[in-house]
Batch of 3 targets.
Target 1
Amino acid sequence: MGQQDLKQESRCWGVFDLTPNTRLQFNCGDLLLDIASGEKDWLMQYELKTSDTVHNPCIQLMGTGEEGWSLANKQRIVSNNMPQKLSLTPVMSDRAIVCRATTTVVLLPKEQISLYVAVPLWLQLSIRGGEKPLLDVSTERISDTWFGLNSREGVMSYALRMSEQLDIQPSTNHGMRVTIEIRIKNESNEQLNLDKVSVPAPHLALYVDEVGHFWTRRITMVREQDEQATLTIDKVMSTGLAHQNLTLVSAARDDLGQHKITKALSALFG
């Protein structure tokens, strides 16, 4: 992508030219990423903004030099043969994300429902294919949480802000978020109270449609007769989108394939 094209670019991911004495600034959700290139080094800084304002993804071609070099996290990358391109790739988070309902959803016995959530994406920066990314960071502020039955049985996860909800309709999709359909089946003889759901983000590949919205395959969670639940990553896409209208952006961090996983009920629903 040339610098003349870059001035008009509204998508903050892909492969970009970064020739010596060039500086690019990327706005992706809450993430501000600033990179300046020299002959044998790159200066990189980034931070997550605290404003509640929604920022559309964009890229700016900046002046050279270290003016405004004041963001929270800084790195200098050095090489005798610095690449002149960088790759920014959206990926799913590296942990499960706990999503809460505004009001408890009660699923009656032998019933099923689809709930929808839009969760933040991570962004990976790499310069050579196959190497470990130089940066792997969330595009929004997100909190750590312990999710499980008690303080000993559970896993470290991320928690969305309380304003982010599970819903019975697909969320409006914009920016650096991905819409996920979660189909929940209650095969037991008891009602299932859905206050929160743990979304297995690392097991999901990421796709993009023709207008730049992100999607994953549908997730199916089944509550069995006992206190067990099964998790499956379905072949079909969330909301039934056609595969031919989607492009794969990034593979799952931990691909389950077509396997079904059995977990304690508390591992999926708290």
Target 2
Amino acid sequence: MAEQALTPEQIKILETLLRAGFRFLTLERYARYFAVEKNGFVALLDPAGGELTVFSQAGFLMGDGIGMLIEERGGKSFVFHGQKTPATPELLIAYEDFKRELGDLLIAK
């Protein structure tokens, strides 16, 4: 895949994320995307088409991967390659806060 330069608007959004306390991660398996993390939660940002949009869904940082929220008979958990972290009520609130804040910052161009 050929690398493309970021647009000034994309750079501005990334700077806004940094000021809001997000940090950038390098996740080898997701090298095509910008990984942003805050409070243990991660989202992949796709820079295609001059935009920055969330790719797939946000999740919980688990080692070098992203645990996706699933619901089983025993309740909700974040799961990544056999690892499981129970989604406590506090963790679910923090997860929703993360998604809301990220979404707000991405649309507040």
Target 3
Amino acid sequence: MRFFAIATVIAAAAVASAALPVEPMNAFVLQQQNNEQHVLQDKKPFDMTGGKSYIVAFKDSAAADVILKAEKEILAFGGKIGHRYTAALRGFSAWIPGPIVTALSSNPFIDYIEEDGEVNAYLV
């Protein structure tokens, strides 16, 4: 049921989304925050037997380089990037080791990280 609710919200957001103006000062603050995002320090590869597939969705305020930086961090720790999403949501699917999921969850530009799974749509 949660997947259906998320899919409904994503579809509604995609239909209703419009470009909103950003004040110059806010744009500067957002860029500073993007540059200061959390970076993983200890770049040792992990045993991927503990990894799972996740959907990583970013907030609208996240710059493209923030998303790219997160992808690079996942790859540096031995993860794998699956699909990149740009229409209904901004983010990607990835196979990520557990400790990296925990570290990514502290990134203020990530809206949510959810374990990937099968989604079915039913007409009522």
